[in-house]
Design brief:
single chain, about 0% strand, 15 helices, mainly alpha, about 280 residues
C-alpha cells in the first residue's frame, strides 16, 4: 500500500495563507466590477434609495445602457477611439521597430547614451511634462485636432523599444550579412527579413499600447476639447457629470458598454495575446 504523503504543520499553514491571500486579492479585484454591474441595472430612484450592493429590482432593465449610449454619443466615441487606435498602433510600431533596429544593429557613437536617456525618460512622470507638451501642441496648432492627438500619442514608447531590442538581439546578424551580400539595402533587410520575424514582439507591444490608448483619459480630455466631435470612449462618460451631481447608474452602464469591445477582442484573440506575451518575456 502506498503511504500517504505527510505534510508538516508549517507547510500547511503557509499553503492556507497563500490561498487566503489569493482569495483576498481576487475579492478586491472583483468587488468594484460587481458593484458596477449592480449599479448599472438600477433606476435613478433605486440608486438614491438603496446601498451600493443592493440588488436591482429588475435585471432586464436595459434602459440605462441605451440612454448612456445615446446621450454620451458613444457611437461617435467608439469610432474616434478606433481611428486613433489604428493610426497610433501603426505609427508607434513602425517608429519603435525602426528605432530598435538602428540601436541594435548599428553601433553608432552615443548608442549607450541614447538607451540610457530612454530609460531616464521612462522614470519621469508624464503629467510633470504636460506644461511643455501643451505649449508645443499649442504652437503647432495641434490642440483640439484628431491628427495632433494621434501624433502626440505616437510618441516613442520606451517599453516597446526595449521589447523590440530584445527580439533583435535574438535574431542572428548573419541574416543581415547574407542579405547585404545579395544586394539588399538596410531598409529592405528591415522590411522583408527582420520585421516579419518580430510578430510576437509586435503583438506584445500592440497589446500594451492599445490598452493604454483605449483607456487614456487625461490627455484625451486635455487636447480633444470638442467632445461632440472628438470625444473618445474614455471621455464620453463626462456627459453624466456636472455641478448638480453625477448619475452613477448611467456612468456604470457606460463603463460596461465601453468594456464590451475589449472583452470581445480578448475572448476572440486570447490565444494570440497569451502567446505574444509569453514570447515577449525576456530571455536569459
Amino acid at each position: 500500500m502506498k503511504r500517504r504523503k505527510q505534510y508538516s504543520p508549517k507547510k500547511v499553514i503557509i499553503t492556507i495563507l497563500k490561498y487566503l491571500s489569493l482569495l483576498f486579492v481576487a475579492f478586491c479585484a472583483i468587488l468594484p466590477l460587481v458593484s458596477c454591474v449592480v449599479t448599472a441595472f438600477k433606476t435613478e430612484e433605486e440608486y438614491n434609495s438603496t446601498s451600493v450592493m443592493t440588488m436591482p429590482s429588475n435585471w432586464l432593465n436595459f434602459s440605462n445602457f441605451i440612454e448612456a449610449f445615446q446621450k454620451a454619443n458613444m457611437g461617435r466615441a467608439f469610432l474616434n477611439s478606433l481611428v486613433i487606435l489604428i493610426f497610433v498602433l501603426a505609427g508607434s510600431i513602425i517608429i519603435g521597430t525602426q528605432l530598435a533596429y538602428v540601436l541594435n544593429r548599428f553601433k553608432l557613437p552615443g548608442n549607450g547614451l541614447i538607451r540610457n536617456l530612454f530609460t531616464f525618460a521612462a522614470l519621469l512622470p508624464g503629467i510633470a511634462m504636460q506644461v511643455a507638451v501643451y505649449q508645443i501642441m499649442t504652437d503647432l496648432h495641434f490642440v483640439n485636432t484628431m491628427y495632433g492627438y494621434i501624433i502626440m500619442m505616437m510618441g516613442t514608447d520606451v517599453m516597446s523599444i526595449y521589447i523590440f531590442i530584445q527580439y533583435f538581439e535574438n535574431l542572428p546578424v548573419s541574416l543581415d550579412e547574407s542579405a547585404i551580400i545579395d544586394g539588399a539595402s538596410y531598409f529592405t533587410i528591415y522590411r522583408k527579413i527582420l520585421l516579419p520575424l518580430l510578430k510576437p514582439a509586435i503583438v506584445t507591444s500592440a497589446i500594451l499600447k492599445a490598452v493604454g490608448v483605449y483607456n487614456e483619459y487625461y490627455c484625451a480630455n486635455l487636447y480633444l476639447q470638442d467632445r461632440t466631435k472628438l470625444g473618445t470612449v474614455a471621455t464620453s462618460l463626462l456627459s453624466f457629470t456636472g455641478p448638480m451631481g453625477s448619475k452613477y447608474n448611467m456612468i456604470c452602464a457606460g463603463v460596461i458598454v465601453s468594456m464590451l469591445p475589449a472583452l470581445i477582442v480578448f475572448l476572440v484573440c486570447q490565444k494570440q495575446i497569451y502567446n505574444g506575451i509569453a514570447a515577449g518575456a525576456v530571455k536569459g
